[in-house]
Amino acid sequence: MPYSRVVPAVECVPEFIAPMLLTPSEGLPDDAGWVHEVKWDGMRAQLRFDGRRVTVRSRYGRDCSEQFPEVHAIATMHTTPVLLDGELVCFDAEGCPDFEQLRSRLRCGTPSAVAGARAQSPATLVIFDVLHLAGKATRKLAYRERRAVLDELTLTGPAWRTPRVFAADEDLAAVTCKHHLEGVVAKRLSSAYQPGRRAGAWLKHKHRQRERLTVTAWRPGNGREPDEVLVARRDHDGELRYAGGVRFGLRAAERARLRGLLIDLERLRARRARVRWVRPLVEVDVDYHGRPGGPLRDPILRGITDRSGRLTRAAN
């Protein structure tokens, strides 16, 4: 359904539509009924243009227009009222998404802070769907038709882009893994847009990194066992640098084992301390989302290595 065939104004652009959600998947379909896209490591966003002003909202409908003023210029490139679904992304010097840069943009609360953060970490709206155009809802169209409409809009500019889609039999997973991108999204070509639903027509496959890190401290829970371990990685000079905290994967067996390993390594016997610091002699295997050597996102403990070098895998 080309752009030129969309019926002219019959209804106002909705203020906000709950975005269609992705279903986690270990594998990806490779038949002709699906296409694949890069999964961008950013923040889901919806851009509304009513012919006069641009509004940007988060996945939950929060207005974040003032925090990302650079995307407002889309109004000078596109004059038709439209509602777009996409992802706000900050790219690093190598052209890879940097979630920490985006997070710094979200912390800005004043115009001067926004201006400074924008100069240092410009954001791009990666557009992958059109929900309303020229006074007509497009959500009931099949994805292949919505994508044709989106492509005809040729939305490419200084702070927005429309990424390409890939045939399902292309090995996009291998390419995105090689370049340390977040993962792949598979979309069924015949599917309508289902607001707020995780219906299985959009699948996400996220790459995870695996790394062995050193335990430097732990936080006690309600009992005596660790509720969280704080971990660090060694830099090129051999110095330990804080990497993050790991809580998921700490089941009863892992808690008890860590308690036994760490209690004798405590530097201070402060039983009521909120953080118990230990000598860095115990390591844990952790997998996480993100780039290798980067911040730990959604980390899960996968194994524990004691002082003798013996690895005990977590019972996940």
Describe the structure concisely.
With 316 residues, the protein is of the alpha+beta class.
What does this structure look like?
- The strands form three sheets. Strands 12, 13, 14, 15, 16, 17 and 18 form a seven-stranded antiparallel beta sheet that branches. Strands 3, 4, 5, 6, 7 and 8 form a six-stranded mixed beta sheet that branches. A five-stranded mixed beta sheet has the order 1-11-10-2-9.
- It has helices at residues 74-77, 99-106, 111-120, 143-153, 172-178, 252-262, and strands at residues 23-24, 34-39, 43-49, 54-58, 82-90, 123-133, 136-137, 160-161, 166-167, 183-188, 202-206, 209-220, 226-234, 240-246, 276-277, 283-289, 297-305, 311-313.
- 16% of the residues lie in helices and 34% in strands.
- 33% of the residues are buried.
- A hairpin with a 4-residue loop joins strand 3 and strand 4.
- The chain is elongated.
- The chain folds into three domains: 23-38 and 164-207, Dna Ligase, domain 1, CATH 3.30.1490; 41-162, D-amino Acid Aminotransferase, Chain A, domain 1; 209-313, Nucleic acid-binding proteins (OB fold (Dihydrolipoamide Acetyltransferase, E2P)).
- The chain starts with 22 loop residues before the first strand and ends with a strand.
